[in-house]
Design brief:
TIM Barrel, alpha/beta, 3-stranded parallel β-sheet, 42% helix
């Protein structure tokens, strides 16, 4: 394992990580593999051959935009690729999307549960249009979420509807298309030119289902991702390898697809 691009990881400012990680562990009944600091993430990357990690931030309030943007500017490097966030209720949404692009960032992270929206809500369409027009990547939490009631905020049908309306939107659907909605992913999304990452999935999905989805999907549209610190690169790679999808497709997933997508911005 060398030169891997992890397209979906999380980290926090040191002073925030100390409280955020225990809170999130309790909220989701999960255990983190590190303490959520950027230095700890880098140490984990070094241990397991990860060259670059995309850091996904989530603005849970409109007022958090400036702080997230400022921190993202502080931590970015050749190896740490921050994706800042805006809140859908932010009255300056379009201006802030433009600022993210102007500051040289490659993408944005959104989360329908933590930010309390429905993926296909038409009020988000101006934001999707702006993100698409600027060529930014949008990492979107999709499927259910371990810490929330199972309201269908971002299911495969909603994904398909949004991407039909915005065919140039470079939206990465997390957790192999939609977490714990994989039968619908197989029926509605697999085989289409829709980006999917494999974060926090391969240890929970039926391996035969995962293999069918990945082999049915265009080889260039699956991305390696961990959702670190909630899962790590070593175990994610082992689960991927066990699917026996072939070395060519595996190589695309581990690095090439992420590299091409990042270079598209």
């Amino acid at each position: 394992m060398q030169g891997i691009i992890d397209f979906h990881a999380h980290a926090f400012p040191d002073e925030v990580a100390a409280s955020a990680i225990p809170y999130l562990e309790e909220e989701g009944d999960v255990t983190a593999i590190h303490d959520g600091r950027v230095t700890s993430l880098l140490n984990n990357m070094d241990m397991h051959g990860v060259e670059k990690s995309v850091i996904c931030s989530i603005a849970t309030r409109p007022s958090q935009f400036d702080a997230i943007l400022s921190w993202s500017k502080q931590i970015r490097s050749e190896r740490i690729i921050p994706f800042p966030s805006f809140h859908p209720d932010d009255p300056d949404t379009l201006e802030h999307i433009g600022k993210i692009r102007k500051e040289g960032f490659k993408g944005i992270k959104m989360h329908p549960y933590y930010q309390q929206f429905f993926l296909d809500d038409k009020k988000l369409y101006p934001a999707y249009e702006k993100i698409s027009d600027l060529g930014l990547i949008l990492i979107m939490h999709t499927g259910f979420d371990i810490a929330f009631p199972r309201i269908r905020r971002c299911d495969p049908r909603q994904i398909l509807d949004v991407l039909t309306d915005f065919p140039k939107l470079k939206m990465v659907t997390t957790h192999l298309g939609a977490w714990q909605q994989w039968d619908e992913v197989e029926d509605l999304l697999a085989g289409r030119k829709i980006y999917m990452d494999i974060s926090y999935t391969l240890d929970q999905i039926n391996p035969q289902t995962a293999r069918r989805i990945i082999l049915k999907h265009p080889g260039e549209y699956i991305l390696f991702a961990t959702d670190s610190p909630w899962s790590g690169p070593y175990e994610t790679y082992q689960y991927l390898k066990a699917l026996k999808i072939g070395s060519e497709r595996e190589e695309l997933i581990l690095k090439k697809n992420g590299q091409v997508l990042l270079e598209s911005v």
